[in-house]
Amino acid sequence: MPRTAGGRFGVVDIGSNSVRLVVYDALCRAPFVQLNEKVICRLGAGLEARGRLDPAAVGSALAALRRFRILLDGLGVAAVDAFATAAVRRASDRGHFLSLAEHALGRPVAVLSGEEEARASALGVAGGFHAARGLVADLGGGSIEFAAVDGLSVRPLGSLPLGTLGMRDALARGRRAAEAAVSRAFAGCAETLRAMRGERLHLVGGGWRAIARIHLGLARSPLQLVHGLTLDAGTLLALAGELRTVRPERLVRLPGLARRRVETLPAAAFLLETVIRRLEPEAVLFSATGLREGRLFARLEAGEMARDPLLEGARRLAAADARDAAFAAPLTAWLAPLLADVPDHLRRLHEAAVLLSDTGWREHPDSRARESFGRLLRFPFLGVDHPGRVFVAHAVFLRYGGNAKDPAVRPVLERLDPAARRAATALGTAMHLAYRLAGGVGAILARSRLRREEGELVLEAPGELLPPDPSVLGGRLKRLAKAVGAGGYRLEAGRERRR
Q1: 353-379 confidence digits (pLDDT tens)
Q2: Beta-carbon count within 10 A of 254 CB
Q3: pTM to 2 decimals?
Q4: What residues contact 454, with CB distance under 8 A and at least 6 apart?
């Protein structure tokens, strides 16, 4: 049954390659991860040949589950969703393992069907992106799940036994054996997936995220963030083709690759090639949200799930870190004369930046701009792509008086198109003025207003609110006038405005 937002929520994911515990700080639309622990057990290793779970892997998994029980109890996590996926689903001894697993964890463990797994992965992607549309492919150690996503609507398309562990074994027998395994697996849903050809493809799973991190490292990207990374199919095909044939001793030297991924990375690369060639996507997006987040989102009521995840995350961060989160409302009203020409797709980014505009106040004055920029650029917000992150971070950077020519910032600003950069600059410059004028107090800010008058930008405020030295505000007003394209500016000491 769906549930409204609540306290801590734990997920125990018994996968084919790893066993993982994730504790989210709240059961809500924009949860933050409090604990994330993974143990590589490889329950699915050798399953195709043996039909049963490997005893050594079972021992490792049970030890992990016993530790997870201690952590969950210590953190006081009452709501826990524990489940197993492809390896346990297909093992002949699944009943025996589940009995041991539930005893070790102290909680019931569900076994997800392929359809349930595909649905949850797609819902995780739907919740992790803003208005996601296209195809979701989730690669695990024992299977790939496919689903269609359109906003918050998801539709499972199939679960194929093509995980990294089985494909690693097939590749060891030669390329022909691997291609035969792929052909057999795709035979049952070829027509269904063919209908999705040319759509945007959202990739989920640790093996594919490892490839994304390698790309970011090789490209020396100034934004080393996997979630929301968007690449064209040709770039990924070339990289996957190289990774499939690289020797293990060279793989370990690749930037961003964890040692535990070396053994299965060629299989992940081969499967990525396979999926891209068959689906010919218009673009490929990497997602950090998937199965576990989807299981959380499935518990939320429709109204909660329909909220904008970026704005919900910004509100939660502001509530914790801003001096007065309520200042966002009068600040938004004060900024309204500057927003008339802002494109609709940037308005939610404006709102997020306003909500986050005072979250860096505890930093040293000399470093607030840079620290805020770096933090917001990499903060685990949902529902925002890379350019959107840069927009929000840049606006708050300027709110704290940052210099756009700062060498620590300039390379990242290239991710913004000219129109978005102008809008972020105007917003940040305006907030810099607003905070200096009102000190972050909404009632004070409401006594002043901005207006455009015959090509000029005018700041009107009662004389007693203005600093004795007019240059204190004049310089900021001048920069704002330039940012919004006003021909001039004027600081006007008016009478008290009546409400």
Answers
A1: 999 999 999 999 999 999 999 999 999
A2: 19
A3: 0.91
A4: none
